[in-house]
Design a protein that fits this description.
Pfam families: Epimerase. By secondary structure, this protein is α/β, with parallel strands linked by helices. It has a domain at 14-193 and 227-254 and 290-304: Rossmann fold. It is built from 13 helices and 14 strands. The chain has helices spanning 23-34, 52-55, 60-63, 74-81, 98-118, 153-158, 162-181, 204-213, 230-242, 259-269, 295-299, 307-320, 329-338, and strands at residues 14-17, 38-43, 64-68, 86-89, 123-127, 144-145, 185-190, 192-194, 219-220, 224-229, 248-252, 255-258, 278-279, 291-292. Strand 1, helix 1 (23-34) and strand 2 form a beta-alpha-beta unit. Helix 4 packs across helix 5 (98-118). The longest helix is centred in the first third of the chain and has 21 residues, at 98-118. The termini are far apart.
Length: 339
Amino acid sequence: MPAVSSSVSGHGQTICVTGAGGFIASWMVKLLLERGYTVRGTLRNPDDPKNAHLRELEGAAERLTLCRADLLDYESLKEAINGCDGVFHTASPVTDDPEQMVEPAVNGTKNVIQAAAEAKVRRVVFTSSIGAVYMDPTRGPDVVVDESCWSDLEFCKNTKNWYCYGKAVAEQAAWAEAKEKGVDLVVVNPVLVLGPLLQPTVNASIIHILKYLTGSTQTYANSVQAYVHVKDVALAHILVYETPSASGRYLCAESVLHRGDVVEILAKFFPEYPIPNKCKDNGKPRAEPYKFTNQKLRDLGLEFTPVKHTLYETVKSLQDKGHLPVPTKQEQDSIKIQS
């Protein structure tokens, strides 16, 4: 591979990406390598075959190191982060018990920021979530969700929404720790992330779409969801890292759709799958999409991928990776005739 010229933005800089094998993090590694960065990816087990896709990325042989590290093992994090210019903290604790998620998420985040402070990194970019932003029952329908909004912790606890609770307290811990340690922290808050998979396994956000294509659900919920393309999320992290004036939180969302709109788009693109066309609670008024702004990221030059394109690429990727059967030409022709 030819030497990367110094005109490439990342030339000579090293970024540590925690949890490098994940859906979003894999895309970060890919884009960072493409931009000339040297990348250190932390993984609980670098030798696990599910992480092999990272070694196949362009530039990986020359500029990617995979480090064995655990969020709760401070020394392993310190070793991975030492000598880095920046850190993208994307790793989340992996647990089936949502209540158990909170403590590791908070302590893991504190460990990353403390290690970053010791290593004197230029900036830490933390992957938070819309879950830390919009879960607030008192917000009126006309209020625009932006970076100033926070989820109501008591409401999250009372409704046992441990995901949103965990994301909110982990982000609050990140801000508090960064302030105390004097670390330059910027936060990206993505909504539900879709798009092509780099990793071989299906993650939770992709299952959200997969269930509509496999016939495992006959109806769709009367609810709304905000969506964003995975590449846009990865690029958002790079933009806020590379822009010296970037600060605070950045809401990363392209559009809010009702589940009914999602299945309609999927059915138009992929009529060969048993996509549901009935709403679970048909008698109730249709849930209205909430308003949001992504202006802060647009101001940094991010152009969001339209949600229709994102949904199409998600399904194509599921087919390519063998998670969905691809209809034969004969089946496709017969669907065209019927429609």
